Amino acid sequence: MKKFSYYLSALLAGLLFSALTFAQSRVIQGTVTDENSHPLSFVSVNIKGTNKGVVTDKNGVFSLEVAPNATLIVRAVGFLTKEVGTGTGHSLTITLAESASDLNEVVVTALGVKKEKRNLTFSSQEVKSDEILRAREPNIVNTLTGKVSGVQITNSSGMPGSSARIVIRGITSLTGENQALIVMDGVPINNDETDNPNDGGPGSNRLSDIDPGIIESINVLKGAAATALYGSAGARGVVLITTKRGGDNRKPTVMLTSGLSFENAYFPDRQMTYAQGTNGIYYDGETASTKTSTSWGPRMDTLKVNGAKVPFHNQFKEFFRTGVSTNNTVSVEGGNASSSYYLSYSYFNQQGTIPATDYTRHSLFAKYTTKIYEKLTGTFQITYSSVKNHRMPEGYGLENPLWTVYAAPVSYNLKPYLNDDGTQRLYRYSRNNPYWVLDNVLNTTIVNRYLPVLTFVYAPTDWLSVTERMGADMYGDQLQYHVNMNDITYTTGLIQSKHSTFRQFNHDFIVQLKKQFTSKVNTSLLLGNNVYSNYSDYMQAIGKGLAKAGYYNMASASSVTYTESQAMVRKIGFYAQGELDYNRTVILNLNGRYDGSSVLSASNRYYPYGSAAAAFIFSEVIPEKVKKTINFGKVRASYAIVGNDNVSAYTTTTPYYQATIYGDVSSNLTFPYNGQNGFLISSKLGNANLKNELQKELEFGLEMKFLNNRLGFETSWFDRKMSDGLVGGIALPNSTGYASTTINSARMETKGLEVLLNVTPVRTKDFSWDVTMTYTKMNSKVQEIGAGLDQTSIGSTWAIVGQPWGVLKGTKYARTSDGQLRINASGLPYSDDNSNILGNTTPDWLGSITNQFHYKQFGLSFYFDTRQGGQLQNSDDGYNLYYGVSKITEDRADRVVQGISDATGQANTVSVTAQKYYQQVSGITEAVIQDASYIKLRNVSLSYNIGQKALRSLPFKNASIVLTGRNLWIHKSSSFTGADPEANSWGNGNSSVGLYSFTAPTSRSYDCTIKLTF
Questions:
Q1: Which of 101-105, 617-621, 640-644, 899-903 is the least confident region?
Q2: What percent of the chain has pLDDT over 90?
Q3: Cα angle vertex 76, ends 73, 81, to 5°?
Q4: What is the pLDDT of residue 99?
Q5: How far is CA 461 from CA 512, 572, 578, in A?
Q6: How far is CA 944 from the centre of its chain?
Q7: Quick one: pLDDT at residue 991?
Q8: pLDDT tens digits for 508-532?
Q9: Are 805 and 782 a contacting pair, CB within 8 Å?
């Protein structure tokens, strides 16, 4: 009985204690805001020591039952975690401070979804607006040079408006598109290269239409796991551009920016010691008997004619000019509690270092975001640009003025360019005078482009949102190219007129669900559908035989031929993404997509793929003492399978085309002829069984931060295997009646290592020093081509089984079995006449280092980037060796070439002149394969923000001045004789990689920009 009474008393006491506790529990209403009193949604509010918690709604409000003296843990992405006591009241206002650490940084990922950077399970790297603007590059692609590990950017030329190539994690397709997908505010936009001049050289990549000043940030998604949601084009990596927006509850702010730049060209190496002539004899090039092509004459410092010294002409300095660029922008932003706006207009004008070349861009951007009603938000934006570009041909074409400028004798005055009878004044036959070209040859393009985007977000609850996004990319492109009468190639003149239209439409419907089941378990689910289509057409007319010199109207041409083309591509996709976050320590992510593409065969049109990724944030479980040193640590792993429909429209069919009978460049016979039309079926056989390429990628990553986040690094290793690769140009037997076709057969593997290192050596109240370094190393190997082939041509390079992609091939010096040169009876080395492997265009590694210093109101930054390894074919040098212009030809002593004589079988003893030697080797490809390595001082920027005291008497809120230098120093390999090895002379396609041929040179530029805020 006594024992029973004891248990009964204990039970009653427990019930009484519970009742009292229950009576003291209460429900509190709270609001979470930032330091500007703006409400914060999706903030996690948990009771410390329990599993109870809630998430704030879109107004920052939460409701939670708490016990007396409870402590709340409040967490939000981008803000410092805060612990708050509940006290005794029934309401609570909590203010969170923004985190200075990038551990809580929010980044934009696939489909525009924002995520906390610490929780990412894949590799990505973000570049902020200030870094983009600091580059002072008119082309957005070039602003990323050296900034992101795993990314290689190559500029095609120094011509205004020239294209740039961006490749992420190396080559993904043997012959298909390898450049990254560009996405702006969630909508894919076109970045094709267009407007390549008729007679050679690169065009413009269409991303150059976009003003860099409207960009808030660029996030580069590198691996397949990061880009799987983007469908086929995402297999090549994705560049996510986020544009600027106005601020909530912000008074109107006006910003004026004005910049002025001066540009001076880098010149290739050449000899300037010897005059025009041959075998040491001077020719003045004025009469028919003296129009030699070469500069194998006497020394200029000893050359006199009729007792007078022959004037020296530096052809580079006489031809090129100082380029001048201006960039002016005005923007307005602001907003109230329910809406925000941002407007921007910019005018950019670049006068090239080559006379008659320029690039002009007008850009208008507007974005308006408003709360249509309580649960529905809409964003309306439009980007408009108008671009006009005047360009000269580049490359091998005789209409390229650089061909003659680079090789002209220093003893010859190219001016005036006309003889008394009105014909061209030439120092040699079959080459235009470059000054005549400036006045009589020109490529003019005009592009008008519109990019509208409508986005609606409906959020009926704090855990559900529905997004509908519609975007378009539409532009019209007009090109006119003219060559006047008396041109060397087109003696009667030529007009080319081309009108192109491009329309691209994209629609996404996305449902997002977020649920916090306990204080430790957060989940999210994304479901969506994508519909995409693009349509392109062009009509081109080429007229020959002008009725009147200088009259560039198609009606004046004596013969006109037309070409017309249309293409439409459609895609549809369904995608899903699920993510689980356990205790902010373990993150699991699954992606899946099911795509359909109109460019593939009907039986293979639909294909699934997906990815699985995980991250473990081990810094959450290490002892507190260790956390003082290791602030953050994460390991991640992912595996993805991605499909890629990497062929152009109608590759599954065999079309007819208007027939042409080819002669030389000026006498092609094109139908219709004498009123009769003619068509031929294409020699390229369509393949009705084409399917998607497949990319399988395994990736591991490690991210760590130390010493109060002053030292941090990210590193990723990946192994990507491509199979069923689409290969065009596969040769067919003549018996089929066709020359080539496209098949699914290639296999290639790429392994790579990417490293990003951030260090802050010094951080005080007034001074800081930040260092960022990147390192990229990739190794690729072609494993199979198919159709029994062990190699296939990719324009100027080759894909060869067992070799990295981008092999350079050509003739080698003939050698004996032990490697010595074989010498003919004349005492000269010669070619083996075979096609040999001579090098590879792929660099061994890429790297960069950026330093940023801030002292009070001053800022200084500079960065170097480097490419080490890889070769190119310098066609200029082959030409210049023959004509005695190459720098190496300054050594004009007779020589005995070391090697084994074919005539005697012994060491060669026959002496030859320098002219005979260099003219002999100029035709051997091995002699012009050069190292493409470089180190560049890419950018130096000095800024000063004018203090508030100085602005008190002025109508400005802020004012700053920035001085910038670009490409101030280039260190190149001693074997490279051009101006800058970072060039693709024929554009940004696969076929242009590794070819250097009479390209407009890179410029060193100096810029001053003033920014005023009202």
A1: 101-105
A2: 70
A3: 45
A4: 59
A5: 11, 29, 19
A6: 30
A7: 81
A8: 999 999 988 887 899 999 999 999 9
A9: yes
Q: Is the dihedral of CA 148, 152, 157, 162 positive or negative?
A: negative
Query: Above 50 in pLDDT, residue 5?
Result: no
The helix/strand/coil state of 393 is coil
CA distances for 824 relative to 782, 882, 895, 918, 923, angstroms: 38, 19, 14, 15, 15
Whole-structure pTM value = 0.89
Contact assessment for residue 276 and residue 218, using Cβ atoms and an 8 Å cutoff? no
Which amino acid makes up residue 871? Q
**3 state SS for 273-290:** CECCEECCEECCCCCHHH
SS3 assignment, position 386: strand
Distance, in Å, from the CA atom of 890 to the CA atom of 516, rounded to the nearest integer, reads: 76
520 and 583 Cβ atoms separated by less than 8 Å: yes
**E strands, 884-1002, in order:** 895-896, 900-901, 911-912, 929-931, 934-945, 958-972, 995-996
Please give the full DSSP string across 830-883, using - where no structure is assigned.
-B--S-EEEEESS-SEEEEEEEEEEETTEEEEEEEEEEES-EEEEHHHHHHHHH
Whether residue 56 contacts residue 42, with contact meaning beta carbons closer than 8 Å, is answered with yes
Whole-number Cα distances in Å, 843 to 154, 360, 895: 12, 34, 35
Q: Is the pLDDT of residue 15 over 50?
A: no
SS (H, E, C) 699-746: EEEEEEEECCCCEEEEEEEEEEEEEEEEEEEEECCHHHCCCEEEEEEE
Determine the straight-line distance between the first and last CA of the chain, rounded to whole angstroms: 88
> Which DSSP category does 302 fall into?
G
- By CB atoms closer than 10 A (0-12, 13-18, 19+), residue 920 is buried
Residues 6+ apart with CB under 8 A from 1012: 255, 256, 257, 956, 958, 959
Q: How far is CA 13 from the centre of its chain?
A: 73
pLDDT bin (cut points 50, 70, 90) of residue 666 is low
Question: H-type helices in 579-643, by residue range?
Answer: 624-627
Residue 581 has pLDDT above 90, yes or no: yes
pLDDT in tens, 302-341: 999 999 999 999 999 999 999 999 999 999 999 998 899 9
User: Which residues face 996 on adjacent strands?
Assistant: 874
DSSP state letter for 225 = H
Q: How many beta carbons lie within 10 A of that of residue 258, not counting itself?
A: 14
Contact (Cβ atoms closer than 8 angstroms) between residue 78 and residue 99: yes
Tokens at 907, concatenated: 């060491």
- Find the Cα–Cα–Cα–Cα dihedral 147, 148, 150, 151, rounded to 10°: -70
Given a cut of 50, whether residue 1 has pLDDT beyond it is no
Contact at 8 Å (CB) between 881 and 898?
A: no
d(CA 748, CA 726): 11
Q: Residue 291 in contact with residue 426, Cβ under 8 Å? A: yes
The pair of structure tokens assigned to 740 is: 């080539």
CB distance 238 to 181 below 8 Å: yes
Structural contact between residues 853 and 859, judged by C-beta atoms closer than 8 angstroms: yes
